[in-house]
Amino acid sequence: MPDVVVRKTIKSLEEIWHEGGPRAQKPYRRAWMLAVIKNPYAGRYEPDIQPFIDDLRPLGLQMAGELIEMLGGKENVQGYGKGAIVGADGEVEHGALWHAPGGYAMRELLGAEASKAIVPSTKKLGGVGARLDVPVTHVMASYVRSHFDAIEVGCNDAPKADEIALALVMTDGPRVHSRSGGLDAGDIKGEDGLR
Q1: How far is CA 56 from CA 32, 52, 73, 127, 176, in A?
Q2: Eight-state DSSP code of residue 58
Q3: What is the structure's pLDDT at 103?
């Protein structure tokens, strides 16, 4: 199995007090982290890439732990998502290797009773400086419209052609002026990850 070689990490915490409406009593916080790693499969076709999933698990746990800390503890996390930008010498399938290590890491650290919804994700091929909109949904129920969001992630010098930029994102509540209706977070049943 190849080693996970991290070139750099980037973290960001955004606090949104209002979007033209009244100022919130507390800000809506959106945290994201990006790890830029060497793509061990860049420049060649490798039929068996699944072993790298296990290699990525410790990185997923580290990143999820740092995001939880940025939001002040797992009890504050209400939304999450994941994504990957694969450099030009790789394939989108290399970004798909992040699905399990990234998603399960967040769910493991948040706990089974606090994260029933599937972790939404996105991935693409991109050059240096590429940006990615990572989707966000509520951690317990994917149909909670107030928590639908997307967080743009990226780095000015990544991914290089032989790299992958792996992203995890978390939020601590609904959009600051959410009023689009639908299932309210207070009405979640928590049975199936949808409602």
Answers
A1: 18, 6, 23, 22, 33
A2: H
A3: 95
**3-state SS assignment for residue 124:** strand
List the domain range (segments joined by +) for residue 167: 6-184
Q: What is the pLDDT of residue 91?
A: 97
CATH number at residue 83: 3.30.1330.110
CB 8 within 8 A of CB 155: yes
The CA distance from 41 to 73, in Å, is 36
| Amino acid code (one letter) for 100 | A
40-62: b or e for each residue (b if 16 or more CB lie within 10 Å)? bbbeeeeeebeebbebbbebbbb
CA nearest 60: which of 171, 168, 169? 168
Predicted model pTM: 0.95
pLDDT at 184: 85
Count of domains for the chain:
1
CA dihedral sign of residues 2, 105, 117, 10: negative
Q: What is the mean pLDDT of each run of 10 residues along the chain (195 residues)?
A: 89 96 95 98 96 97 98 97 98 97 96 89 98 97 94 97 98 94 85 82
Give a yes or no: residue 1 inside a domain: no
